[in-house]
Amino acid sequence: MLALQTILDGLVLGGLYALAAVGFSLIFGVLGVVNLSHGAIVLIGAYFTWFAWHVTGMDPLLCIPPVMLVLFGLGYIYQRGLIQLAVDRSSLLASMLVTFGVALMLRNALVLAFSPDFKSISPGWAFSFLRLGPLTIDLVRISALAASLALLGALAYVLNRTSIGRVIRATAQQELAARLCGVNARHVYAVTFGVSAAFAGASGAILGIVLPFSPPDEANWTLNAFVVVVLGGVGSPSGALLGGLLLGLISTATSQLIGPAFPNVMMFLILVLMLMVRPAGLLGNAFAGTR
Amino acid sequence: MLREAIARQRWWILAALLGLAVLACVPFVLMPFHVRVGQLILLSTALGLAWTLLGGFAGYWSFGHTAFIGLGAFAAGLFETQMLGTPFMRAQPLVGLGLGLVVGMGACAVVAGAVAWPILRLRGIYFAVAMLGVAQVLSELTNSIDAFKGSMGLVFPRIPAFGLRQEAVFYYLLLIATAVILAIAFAVKNARIGHGLAAMREDEDTARMLGVPTERYKITMFVLSATLTGALGVIYAHSLGYITTGSVYRTDFSLNMIVYNLLGGMGTLIGPMIGSVIMVVLTQVILGGFLNLHMFLTGAMLVALVLAAPRGIVGTWLAFRRRRRDAAA
To answer: Which of A74, A130, B58, B262 has an alpha carbon 20 to 30 Å from A204's alpha carbon atom?
Structure first.
């Protein structure tokens, strides 16, 4: 029973990891940019939601659409105004430094705006739970998992079935050819970044109801996203889902079986081993990432 | 090749020696606080140079070089406190430090040698991230395994030497380390291997096709860079006096090594020197007054730096000079 409960907890955590990582994966796959400020964007989503809930008492799950909308806009501007500039003037590796600089700025800004203390979001239904035979699962976690899966499904639909999704995939595969077909590549990159930021924000809103958070956590969320992407494969929602669920299982199983201090060691060990064995990930679909 | 380079660049070498002589006088003139700032500048310069052996020359940007600062520091610290013991260290501090240096550098060489082959098969961002992972694994292991004393911390004895004040001792140690690393970097850059590395940086597959032993070169540079970084870690740990995991496995070290090179000029020797001086003076001295905005300003500076001078100060200056010469001709 303990094993089953561990697996269940791992899956819930994994859904959250997957959602938090999918945007990172998209940017890496399409733009080839490693966005070290991704974790900070996740936290911005969490703080927006916390603020709305704290001030107006709005249900955190209802906050997801406005948070996504706002962050889409911010992400679009961020890419077009800053990251694209860095890529043009220097290199992809140097753009990584720019995103790191932005991560530092955002973290500092969050500390100044919301204090360095831990915050958590607990809506009215936070303490109800379900019993499935001997297993218990609280409503918060179920809704978190459900929301994560729904959003990942929506993203997969957009990428695979809509015209903007087709344009994004085409630009990722070959920028020049896409431009020759009349695609405005810069606009597509910025839209991709916006989508990524929007999903990061949504995952932040969900993260807020599952776990407490504080500004320095942004580094952890960036690193988690990294591990998820390396595990699952770059550039696809299914890869992020697989990687996220695996990471959730690995970290709950490690703290259960080896010791509560070791999930991080295990996580990075797997990261390094995966990079050496199969850098494209289990469901590798790296467009720009491996070039 | 090296002899010609020495003859060709004799004025630069003379300037470097003169600079060393001037720097050696500093502790007798300046206040202890300024000597400490000098220590920090020397440490940063030496770290930037050690990083550039692989990152600047071969184009393999490591985002986790702090792994070797921490590894060197903890290997030396455990050896000195557990094997030699405090009484020995009190009686023979310099011998202890020397042995600690050997052990710390040895540990870095062994670990770097072990991971070099698999990890150097990765390129670009994948290599950068794998190194980030290596640094995290080492730091988490040091922290969670009690035998390594990462969470309890290690205490280093003071190093009294030649009647100098403590900060002056470490100033001189770091000055010597910087000079040695600079000499090594100069030799590497101008020897056969340096030209091979430059060819690899431009196009590794072509270089390999033309007969450059890329595999051997990059493994050599990785181990050399790691070992020198480890030596700096040992000295840095002694200068702190007490270390925990967090004080030597610092992500900002890893990133700063890149920033110094990027600011000064990637792949040059003078680049990391200029870059580290500017960055240390800016972040420690000028921004020292804005503690709650410190991170924000550092981040903003990083962004501005990449956008304003993507080729670094040296690169921008060379481009400027070339343009002026073209205009004159």
So the answer is: A130
Residue B273: which pLDDT band, with cuts at 50, 70 and 90?
A: very high
Cα distance between residue A15 and residue A147, in whole Å: 9
CA distance A241 to chain B (A): 21
Measured CA to CA, the distance from residue B109 to residue A159 in angstroms comes to 47
Dihedral of CA atoms A122, A124, A126, A127 in degrees, nearest 10, equals: 130
Write the DSSP string, A140-169: HHHHHHHHHHHHHHHHHHHHHHSHHHHHHH
Q: Do A272 and B133 touch (CB under 8 A)?
A: yes
Residue A105 lies in a domain: yes
The pLDDT of B158-173, averaged and rounded, is 81
Mean pLDDT for each 10-residue chunk of chain A (291 residues)?
79 88 88 90 94 88 91 94 86 82 92 89 74 74 86 90 89 86 90 94 90 86 85 80 88 83 79 74 51 36
CA B250/CA B139 separation, integer angstroms: 9
Radius of gyration, CA atoms only, chain B:
20
Identify the helix (H) or strand (E) that includes residue A132. strand A129-132
Q: Quick check: is A282 in a domain?
A: no
CATH of the domain at A11: 1.10.3470
Q: β-pairing, B242-243 with A129-132?
A: unpaired
Cβ contacts of residue A146 below 8 Å, gap of 6+?
none
CB pairs A-B closer than 8 Å? 120
Domain of residue A79 covers: 2-127+134-277
Determine how β-strand B154-155 pairs with β-strand A135-138. Answer: unpaired
Q: What is the C-alpha to C-alpha distance for residues B312 and B98, in angstroms, rounded to an integer?
A: 36
A147 in reach of chain B (CB within 8 A): no
Alpha carbon of A230: minimum distance to chain B alpha carbons (Å):
10
B133, B303, B310 member nearest A271 (Cβ): B133
Q: What are phi and psi of A62, to 5 degrees?
A: -75, -20
At B286, which amino acid appears? Answer: I
Report d(CA A91, CA A74) in Å as an integer: 23
Q: Do A104 and B122 touch (CB under 8 A)?
A: no
Q: What are phi and psi of B169, to 5 degrees?
A: -55, -50
**pTM (global) more than 0.80:** yes
How is residue A158 written in tokens?
A: 């957009």
Query: SS3 helix, strand, coil % of chain A, rounded to 5?
Result: 75, 5, 20
Bridge-partner residues for A135, per DSSP?
Answer: A132
Whether A268 and B140 lie within 8 Å, measured CB to CB: yes
pLDDT band for position B183 (cuts 50, 70, 90): very high
Domain assignment present for residue A49? The answer is: yes
Q: A101 vs B141: CB contact, 8 Å cut-off? A: no
Q: What share of chain B is helix, strand, coil (3-state, %, to 5)?
A: 80, 0, 15
A287 lies in a domain?
A: no
- pLDDT at position A291 is 36
Domain ranges of chain B: 2-328
Single-letter amino acid code for the residue at B269:
L
What confidence tier does B178 reach under pLDDT thresholds 50, 70, 90? Answer: very high
Cβ-based neighbours of A170, under 8 Å, separated by 6 or more: A177, A178, A181, A183
ipTM of the prediction: 0.80
Tell me how far apart the alpha carbons of residues A48 and A204 are, in angstroms, rounded to a whole number: 9
